[in-house]
C-alpha cells in the first residue's frame, strides 16, 4: 500500500525556552527542517497493572521515525494549548481513552538531527480498552524483557530508548 497521508507542515506550534515559556511560534515544517526551533511535546507512558508498557507503532507516512515503535502517546502542544490540554487531546486522539490519571514524571530537552523538543513526560496505569486511531499503525503492550531485547536494533525510536534510560521506565 502506498502511503497517502502526511503530517500537516503548516500546523502552528509554540516556540519555547527550556523552561517552557512561550517565545514565539513556527510551523511544523519549520520546527522539523533541521532549524532546531525548540517546541513543546507531551508523552504518556501507559502501563497495565501487570507492569507491561503499551507502545504505539508509528505509521510509514510520519515525517519523523516512520515504522518504529514509540511511546504510547506522543504529540505536539499546539499554539494556544497548555501541556495538560495537549496531553488530554493527544491521548484521546491516538488511543481513544479519557478515563486515566496521568502523573507528570519529568521534562527534558530532546535533540535529533532534525528537531529539538521540550518533552513533558507523564505516566499512567490503565487496564481498559485501548483503541488506536488511524494516526497510528496499531499498538500493543510489551514486557520489560521485550523492550530490553529490542533496544539498539532500530525497532524502537531513539527518543523512546533515550527516555527509557533517562527516566528508568522499565
Provide a compact summary of the structure.
The protein has helices at 28-31, 83-95, 144-150, 158-167, and strands at residues 12-16, 22-27, 38-47, 53-57, 69-71, 73-76, 103-111, 116-125, 139-142. The chain is an alpha+beta fold and 170 residues long.
SSE map:
Blueprint: E1 12-16, E2 22-27, H1 28-31, E3 38-47, E4 53-57, E5 69-71, E6 73-76, H2 83-95, E7 103-111, E8 116-125, E9 139-142, H3 144-150, H4 158-167
Parallel strand pairs: 3-8
Antiparallel strand pairs: 1-2, 3-4, 3-6, 4-5, 4-9, 7-8
Question: Would you kindly provide a written description of the structure presented here, covering whatever features stand out?
Answer:
The protein has a single domain (12-167), classed as Nucleoside Triphosphate Pyrophosphohydrolase. It is built from four helices and nine strands, in the order ββαββββαβββαα. The protein is an alpha+beta fold and 170 residues long. The longest helix is centred in the middle third of the chain and has 13 residues, at 83-95. The chain is globular, with a radius of gyration of 15 Å. The protein starts with 11 loop residues before the first strand and ends with a helix. The strands form two sheets. Strands 3, 4, 5, 6, 7, 8 and 9 form a seven-stranded mixed β-sheet that branches. A two-stranded antiparallel ribbon has the order 1-2.
- What is the 3D form? globular
Name the structural class: alpha+beta
Considering DSSP H and I runs of 4 or more, what fraction of the residues is helical? 10-25%
Number of helices: 4
CATH level 4 superfamily: Nucleoside Triphosphate Pyrophosphohydrolase
Amino acid at each position: 500500500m502506498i502511503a497517502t497521508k502526511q503530517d500537516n507542515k503548516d500546523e502552528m506550534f509554540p516556540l519555547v525556552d527550556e523552561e517552557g515559556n512561550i517565545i514565539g511560534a513556527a510551523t511544523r515544517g519549520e520546527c522539523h527542517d533541521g532549524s532546531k526551533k525548540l517546541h513543546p511535546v507531551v508523552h504518556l507512558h501507559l502501563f497495565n497493572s501487570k507492569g507491561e508498557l503499551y507502545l504505539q507503532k508509528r505509521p510509514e507516512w510520519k515525517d519523523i521515525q516512520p515504522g518504529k515503535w514509540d511511546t504510547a502517546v506522543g504529540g505536539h502542544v499546539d499554539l494556544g494549548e497548555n501541556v495538560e490540554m495537549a496531553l488530554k487531546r493527544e491521548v484521546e486522539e491516538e488511543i481513544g481513552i479519557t478515563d486515566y490519571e496521568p502523573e507528570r514524571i519529568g521534562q527534558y530537552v530532546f535533540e535529533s538531527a532534525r528537531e529539538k523538543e521540550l518533552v513533558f513526560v507523564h505516566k499512567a496505569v490503565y487496564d481498559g480498552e485501548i483503541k488506536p486511531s488511524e494516526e497510528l499503525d496499531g499498538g500493543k503492550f510489551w514486557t520489560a524483557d521485550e523492550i530490553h531485547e529490542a533496544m539498539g536494533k532500530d525497532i524502537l525510536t531513539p527518543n523512546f530508548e533515550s527516555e527509557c534510560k533517562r527516566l528508568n521506565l522499565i
